Amino acid sequence: MTARPRWEHCVANYGDEAIEFANTYFAEPQRRCLFVGGAGFDPRCVTFASILTTHLGDRLQAIFLRERRPEPSAELVSRAERNIEALGKAVGTVEVIDIDVLAEEDGAVIGGRRATEALIGVSLDSFTDIVLDLSALSVGISFPVARLLLERANLATPKKNFHLVVVSNAGVDDAINSVPSDFVDPVHGFSGRLDLEGSSQEPKIWMPALAVGKAGALQILREKLRGPVVVCPILPLSQRDPRASDKLVAEFESELSQSWEVDSDNVIYAIEDDPLDLYLVISAIYTRYTRVFANVTNSHVVLTPSGSKTLAIGALMAAVEHDLAVRYVEAVSYEVKWDRVDGAQSAASMPIHVWLSGDAYATANAPISPGHSS
Predict the structure, then answer these.
(1) What is the mean pLDDT of each run of 10 residues along the chain (374 residues)?
(2) What are the strands of the beta sheet with 350-357, ordered from one edge?
(3) What CATH number does residue 86 fall under?
(4) pTM
(5) Count of domains in the chain?
(6) Alpha-carbon span 44 to 349, nearest angstrom
(7) Which of 79, 90, 135, 325 is deepest in the core (most CB within 10 A)?
């Protein structure tokens, strides 16, 4: 009998419901919260911290990770400093930890390891809840930190409540374009069972999330995956822009039809503002795919989140549960269309809350073992 997805009945809240949940839940006097988020140029980094501090006051400890890349533009630095100042006003005492994303000597990607090293010594004893805000963190940082905090929350006595939050705004995501690194490495802690050399002839499904301006980085990744590879690109179903998928198909026309030879039946459509939708789709594909090759050879599902912070949560949940490989080209720098960021930010953003561990799963909340569902 196939195990059911661990988070098949995950507790999640969207939009006004997410704010209402935060206003009610964190107003309870017994709540003590560790909040971890990004301190960068993305304006969304302030939203959830401001909401929580309203109710928690000195029962909130906030740690913000500031990603350091070589030679950032003056505008990026200025925007980040303004956001840090706003965080200080919203939260009060702010601890900002600088994280070098790339090694100075050779440009190797070290951010995920550095971030987990910075947080592993933080005591969780006094907290009832841990909240990780992905809104202003890159995948290379947020995925390792999420796995670390979730594992520590589950292993604590008593177990801690672990929440993921994000301010979904596809317009902001589309206005931020990354300049890719030359390195293609697994995200720290998400190697899966895939070794690019040793697994070169084993069958693979690669699920890249297509996003505006990411064709170059995704092509670099595809070239590193050798042997038999079925490409299943992920396209967003968007209420904001019903033609978003069509635009991405046009932007990636060469890759989809030529370089990647994508069969139309293999295209995955995921609801843009619902991470659980993508999580369940990836879990179902993983289960069917591994069953087919179970008695023949090793097989691999490889995820590449890009663009949407919301869909990245769905990929993260599937990767943690099934121990999937996550491949990602880290950004050396960012090119940002600031007018579009400012315009999109003033438009409606959707706060999203996903509760992954703790009181809501009191009867089934066993520690996660890689590759197994509880």
Answers:
(1) 79 95 95 95 90 91 94 91 88 87 90 96 95 95 98 94 94 86 86 76 92 90 88 92 92 94 94 95 92 77 91 97 93 89 75 96 53 33
(2) 11-14, 350-357, 161-168, 129-133, 33-38, 60-68, 95-100
(3) 3.40.50.11700
(4) 0.92
(5) 2
(6) 9
(7) 135
